[in-house]
Amino acid sequence: MQTLQQLTQEAQALARGEILLTAHEKEVARQLHICNGCRYCEGFCAVFPAMTRRLEFGKADIHYLANLCHNCGACLHACQYAPPHEFAINVPTLGPKPWAGFTSAMV
Ligand code: SF4
Ligand code: SF4
């Protein structure tokens, strides 16, 4: 278990942007940038209004947005950029953390 001091240091490093995104988080950020330009799903759930308040998606943003998704699947069925489109947007597919919605084969 992490100590309070370790958690504080991690939070400070996160705020300074010193913790790099994983490959999976980079893929999540890529998809979020496309969704932010599209915004078709804006009224579907809490994820999209929260997403539109951001221009960049760091690790903390990705984890926050992940916790707003209840993985209902509505945005995948509505998405014109879902596979086989080359944008390959796949928001609600079950997958690895930190995003139960945005996933790809990349982890
Ligand atoms: S999931 Fe698809 S349709 Fe919905 S906002 Fe993102 S890109 Fe647009
Ligand atoms: S799968 Fe997640 S992001 Fe997509 S509409 Fe449902 S709650 Fe929102």
Task: Outline the structure in words.
By secondary structure, the chain is mainly α. It contains 5 helices and no strands. The two termini are 24 Å apart. It is 46% helix and 0% strand. The longest helix has 16 residues, at 23-38. The structure holds iron/sulfur cluster (2 copies).
Q: Which band does the percent of strand residues land in? A: under 5%
Order of helices and strands: HHHHH
Report the end-to-end length measured between terminal Cα atoms.
24 Å
Rg over CA atoms: 14 Å
Shape by Cα distribution: elongated
Low-pLDDT ranges: none
Task: Compute the number of helices.
Answer: 5
Mean pLDDT: 83
Structural class: mainly alpha
Ligand catalogue:
iron/sulfur cluster
The helix content, as a percent range, equals 40-55%
Major sheet, described briefly?
A: none
Total strand segments: 0
